[in-house]
Amino acid sequence: MVGPVAKREGVAHLQSVMDLSERRACRIVGADRKMVRYRSRRPPDTELRARLRDLANERRRFGYRRLFVLLRREGERSGLNRIHRLYREEGLCVRKRRARRKAVGTRAPILVEAQPNARWSIDFVHDQFANGRRFRVLNIVDDVTKTCLGAIPDTSISGRRVARELTAIVERHGKPGMIVSDHGTEFTCNAMLAWCQDSKADWHFIAPGKPMQNGFVESFNGRMRDELLNETLFFDLDDARAKIAAWVTDYNNERPHSALGYLTPTAYAATFTATGDRLRNTDQLRRSPVAQPTPHGVQTAEALTVTG
User: Fold this and answer.
1) Rounded distance, CA 14 to CA 280, Å?
2) Would you kindly state where each structural domain of the chain is located, as residue ranges?
3) Could you read off the pLDDT of 58-115 as tens digits, one per residue?
4) Alpha carbon 231 to chain centroid distance?
5) How does residue 222 score in pLDDT terms, banded at 50, 70 and 90?
6) Contact status, residue 141 vs residue 148, Cβ threshold 8 Å
7) How far is residue 246's CA from residue 239's CA, in Å, rounded to a whole number?
8) What's the CATH class of domain 119-260?
9) In 3D, which of 178, 187, 182, 179 has the Cα closest to residue 209?
């Protein structure tokens, strides 16, 4: 018996079953009599517990750390340890999914210029409707700010469609310094080669069978599957487009990102200056797994951030 609760239960058991006095029961258990008589005066925290349960039910894939950030945004002044204690007392937890086998090897860091649009990652993620028909989502992520620039769901996405979507995103956010993808046929077709030539975009293909070299968008795909695709039922394409768009908006503007110091991607992007060449708070740069090649155009060490 190590904890006070266990010792109190032991003393109560000895008193009720063996009819021992409190003094003798405490001596046997090794408990102090003041500790046995102590009654907690903590407030019940009914409202905080109810709000914590509501947030946990609303965001079932969020642990206590992200829930703590959301409560702080609402003005709750409790510390992280208190939120963790209430989280455990309410029996809340994030169900662990089956882990896949991970490749063993060394990771080589890449130098990524510390500014938005320094590098984009692009990849597909697949799911199906309630009737069993499959669809896919084209995800485009900014590797520095972690912003989801686009999540386009459709039953079929060709290389020409990818080129059109990239053109629209470039018009809204500007041209990237580099785009990273795998060797999917949508990215190696003539339409994409022509788009790269016309836009003069620097396109990098990862090594075959090495998805860890495209780690930013693979991580984003995992978050999308864990928090949206596995938790949501899609009835048709319009329903999928509406729900995915709402989730992307929440991801960019509301969801705390652990790799950004629990800032949102939008808030983290706001820490850059107007020219985008330097951060106002360089302590918030974090390390993340990335692809191996070094992007072109990186010259000065002051403007670089090592991630990996």
Assistant:
1) 63
2) 4-37, 46-90, 119-260
3) 999 999 999 999 999 999 999 999 999 999 999 999 888 776 655 444 445 556 677 8
4) 15
5) very high
6) yes
7) 11
8) alpha beta
9) 182
More confident residue, 1 or 125: 125
Q: Identify the CA nearest to 22 among candidates 12, 7, 35.
A: 12
Q: What is the distance between the alpha carbons of residues 299 and 308, in angstroms, rounded to a whole number?
A: 19
Cβ proximity of 221 and 227 under 8 Å: no
Q: Which residues contact 94 (CB under 8 A, 6 or more apart)?
A: 60, 61, 62, 63
| Residue partners of 99: CB distance under 8 A and separation at least 6 | none
State how beta strands 120-128 and 134-142 pair. Answer: antiparallel
pLDDT digits (tens, 9 = 90+) for 102-143: 544 444 555 667 789 999 999 999 999 999 999 999 999 999
Q: Flag the least confident range among 22-36, 89-103, 181-195, 259-273.
A: 89-103
Q: Tell me the two tokens of residue 199.
A: 């836009």
* Nearest alpha carbon to residue 223 among 193, 248, 198: 248
CA 165/CA 4 separation, integer angstroms: 61
Nearest-angstrom CA–CA distance, 217 and 214: 6
Backbone angles phi, psi at 203, to 5 degrees: -105, 130
The CA-based dihedral angle spanning residues 62, 64, 67, 69, taken in that order and rounded to the nearest 10 degrees = -120
Q: Are 71 and 262 in contact (CB under 8 A)?
A: no
For the residues of 158-206, what is the DSSP string, one character each?
A: -HHHHHHHHHHHHHHH---S-EEE---HHHHSHHHHHHHHHHT--EEEP
